[in-house]
Amino acid sequence: MGQSVELDNVTMRFGDFVAVRNVSLKIGAGEFFSFLGPSGCGKTTILRLISGFMEPTEGAVRIGSKDMRGIGPNRRPTALIFQNLALFPLMKVWENIAFGLEARGVGKAQRRRRAEELLDLIALPGYADKAVSELSGGQRQRVAIARALAVEPAVLLLDEPLSALDLKLRQHMRSELRAIQRKTGVTFIYITHDQGEALTMSDRIGVMSQGEVLQIGQPADIYDAPQNAFVATFVGESNLFPGTISRIEGKEALIETAVGPMRGRNLHALPVGTPAIALVRPERMRVLDAGEAADNMLESAPQRFDFEGAFINVLLDGAGERETILHLTNDGRTQARLQAATLLRVGFDTDATMILPQGQTAHG
Amino acid sequence: MAELFRRTGPLIAWMALLTTLLWVAFMIVLPQVMMVDFSFRPSLPPSKIGGPEDVYTLKNYATLWANTIHRGIFFKTIWSSMLVTVLALAVCYPIAYHLAQVARGQAAALLIVALIVPFWVNEILRTFAWFLILSRNGIFNSALVGLGLIDRPIQFIDGNIGVMIGMVYAYILFMVFPLYNAMESLDRHQIEAARDLGASTWRIHWRVVIPHAKPGIAVGCIMTFMLSAGTIAVPRLLGGPRSRWFTEVIYSWFFDGGDWNQGAAYAFALLILCIVFILVMMRLFRVSLQDIAK
Ligand SMILES: Nc1ncnc2c1ncn2[C@@H]1O[C@H](COP(=O)(O)OP(=O)(O)OP(=O)(O)O)[C@@H](O)[C@H]1O
Ligand SMILES: [Mg+2]
Q: In what residue span(s) does the ABC transmembrane type-1 domain sit (chain B) (predicted)?
């Protein structure tokens, strides 16, 4: 069964460099928690702190409310799946899976039996005596998961385990991982820089940047109510319109931007006169018919149409900070109809417009 | 090979090939063949060479078998070389592991330099340094007596201990570098994975590091064994009459006894036994020539 993991004011320094800064959070027993962040933001470092390969410079790591300081990786109730899997190439598949049991002194017959059970769980029955080199990428992936599960960890730590797989297999493995997590009840801590992966699999997500955890929340919160510009731009696509807040109306505010005033949700209760940005997701924008109106509107010439199948991406000329993007659902006639127009009127509602403090974005 | 031909043109390529072949034929193969031929003939004065008495015989080999002292030295040399090999492995394994997996950047570079620098000094001088350390009135004995650990100096030289220490030291690099090479290519994550799965240090080495480094271990052991069995400098300097090495016996057949045929037989016997030893080791460790060539 899973156990909770708590980071209490954890800081990790390498010399002068701070890889993890003041991170405090609590992951519940049996939760699927993802750390999401760009390369080099300290995700692997956090996993290594939890698994015991490093001790934090400051702060405490607690697993099942027990302080882990001084307890080595071989004695923590965690199992780590490495970024490159690190299977033992000179051992057979079943020996790989049973290695943790071997280390615990379990007899050979029982090890073999357990390995075969786990091979069934990961849908690779009959692979026990194969060599690791005979497996495909996805199969190795699954063997690594089985090897980690064999020691019945309370917490499974996964370091971007799907990054090496192709798209189809990745999607398949996502649901498989989720299923294994539900079946075993183990706490999963998952690391990824792929926001799609984090959004689809996780109970909660922690978004990281430069060693700090910027926001923790359920996928829908992260996407629909981001704390700041970085989270908003890192998770999902977004259109940004910088400006200054000119009026407050309850939970809403009016912001003066280069393309005119916009009304949006004032998520952080910013006062009048504050520099801010209005942020709109591309799928929340629509093309207005003649005479139709919306809470917020802008007019622009379409630059390019990117056909994606289910969606058509429309890129508009310099209305926002970067080019403005619209995701339109493809009904078979959309593109032809839009291409005829030289100027598009685009509308979006107050509800779809988030007003956030100005700050660093993931675009740099 | 084809690459060589393409890059340099046929003339130079053929010349390079021919010189190499000639070198191998005249400098390596021919002398060895002559040695073997020598070893099967009786020792005769020059006037009788080619005469009716100059026939192939096993007499020289029978001498080695019949002479209990020489036979004893022969097997003692093999046995001692095995001991030296095991000792060198025990000393070098931790060093190589530390170099390959633990030490980082500058520390690793420094350690490598520290290992190599002594080997810029000639082997005889290095061995002689050990003589100074280990001799009756040497540094080591003085220190032990000074600390009150022993009453009287210990006779290291003139015994097997001195020879063993000297040899282990002399061949450290030949053991460290093959081990280091093999261990360096081991992904550090595999060691961490094993630890994460609960393995003790001992098990990590037994199940992960040693299997990976096996070809390197085999190369290091073979080199150290061959060098130990074939050396003459170390036993000469650090040994005495009681720790004679088989090479010293061979030497004295050639240069003191003047019986080249007998010496050749002894040398050839040593070579054969060394090769047998290597093959047995390779069998035992289940490494093939291809593994070693890597
Ligand atoms: N042992 C170490 N010594 C010094 N610096 C380190 C060490 N480990 C990590 N770092 C630094 O800490 C920062 C965070 O590294 P980390 O491996 O946690 O990033 P990450 O988020 O996992 O990135 P990626 O997505 O590329 O794997 C990096 O800038 C890295 O250079
Ligand atoms: Mg990483």
A: 74-283
